[in-house]
Amino acid sequence: MSDLDVSAAKLLLIDDDLPSLKLMEAILKQAGYEKITTTTDPRQAVQFYREVKPDLIATDMRMPEMDGFEVMRQLAGVIPTEEYLPILVITGELDAPTKHRALAEGAKDFLNKPVDATEVVLRIKNQLVTRQLHRQLRMHNEHLEAQVRLRTKVVEQTQLDLLNRLALAAEYRHDATGGHAWRVGRMAMLLAEMKGLPADQVEMIKRTAPLHDIGKVGLLDAVILKTGPYDAADWEAMKQHTKIGSRLLSDSRAPLLMMAREVALTHHERWDGTGYHGIKGVQIPLAGRIVALADAFDIMTHPSPYRATLTLNQAKVEIEVQAGKQFDPELSALCSRLIDREGEKLLAATGPLQLVA
Ligand SMILES: [Fe+2]
Ligand SMILES: [Fe+2]
C-alpha cells in the first residue's frame, strides 16, 4: 500500500451549488485533507489550476455557465501530457453515453450525488495513489534515462580516448618531427566544415583523420625508416599501409571506427582513379577525399624524405593544379580558400599528439 500523505495533497473542487461544495469540503477535511481550494465558478478552473497546481480536480457536471465537459476540455489544453492529473466528475444521474463521453474527455472516475462520504474519501484516495505511482514511475524512468546518457557518454569518451592513443602510436612509428597526424585532423575538420557537413560528421572526421596512417605500424623498419629515395619495391611495400590500417580497424560497428577504417583505406586514392586502389571520383568516400587533401598538403609543406618542402603558396598552386586529377575539384577550391584564410596557422598548428618535447 502507498504511504500517501493526504494532508499534503492539493484538491480543487468545482461546483456551482454552494451547499454541495461545502459538504464535499467538510467530508474531505474530516478525512485529513488540508489543502482544499473550492470555487462555484467553473470559468475559473484553468486559472485555479495554474495557481494551485492541484493533485486532483473534482468537478460538477451540470453547471449553468460552463458544463463539466467544457471544464475538462479547457484543462486538457493546459495540463502537461506527461502528467497524470485525475479529474473526477460529480453528478446526479448519469446515463451511459454521458459517462462514456466523460471518460473519453479525460474523467478518471465518477462521484454520485448526493455524495456518500465513505465513497468520496475512498475514490479520491485511489486516484491520488495512482497519481503518486505515476510520478514515482516517471522519476524512475528519468533516473534510468540519465544513467543511460551518462554511460553512453563514458563509452563515447573511451572510444575517443582510444582513437587518440592509436593515432599517437602511429605517429611514434613514422613521424619523427611530430604533429602530422594532429595537423591532418585539424585541416580535415576545417575542410569538412567548409564543405558544409553537419557538426557530428565534422567531429568524426576530425577524430578519425589522425588515424589515416595507422597501418604504418605494420610496415618493416627497412621501408619506414629509409631516408634515401624509394625504389619500386619500397613503394609497393609502403602502399600496404592502407590495407593494414583497414584490417586493424575492420569489423567494428562503432561509427567512429567504421569511418576511421574508410579513411585508412582510401586516403591515397586519386580523383582520376590512379591512386593505390584505383577508386575514382565520388566513389572514393568523402572522408577519404578530404583526408587525402589534408594529408597531401601537410606532406608538401613539411620536410619529408619523399619530396621537396613547398612554401604555402607553392602548395596552394599545386593543389589547384591537381584539382580534378589527384583531388576532388570542389575540395581543392575549398582548400585554396582555406590556405588564404588560415595561412601560416595551418603549418604551425600542433596539438596534443605532438611528440617533440
Ligand atoms: Fe598514408
Ligand atoms: Fe599521412
Short description:
It is built from 14 helices and five strands. Helix 4 (96-104) links the parallel strand 4 and strand 5.
Bound molecules: fe (ii) ion
Uncertain segments are 353-357
CATH class of the largest domain: Mainly Alpha
CATH topology annotation of the largest domain: Hypothetical protein af1432
CATH architecture of the largest domain: Orthogonal Bundle
Number of self-contained structural domains: 2
The name of the CATH superfamily of the largest domain reads: Hypothetical protein af1432
Main sheet: strand order: 2-1-3-4-5
Rg over CA atoms, rounded to whole Å, is 36 Å
The major beta sheet can be summarized as: 5 strands, parallel
The rounded distance between the terminal residues' Cα atoms is 67 Å
Number of helices: 14
Instruction: Summarize the amount of helix as a percent range.
Output: 55-70%
Shape: rod-shaped
Would you kindly provide a written description of the structure presented here, covering whatever features stand out?
The protein has 14 helices and 5 strands. The protein has 357 residues and is an alpha/beta fold. It folds into 2 domains: 6-143, Rossmann fold (3-Layer(aba) Sandwich), CATH 3.40.50.2300; 175-348, Orthogonal Bundle (Hypothetical protein af1432), CATH 1.10.3210.10. It has a 5-stranded parallel sheet with strand order 2-1-3-4-5, with helices on both faces. Helix 6 packs antiparallel against helix 7 (199-208). The protein binds fe (ii) ion (2 copies).
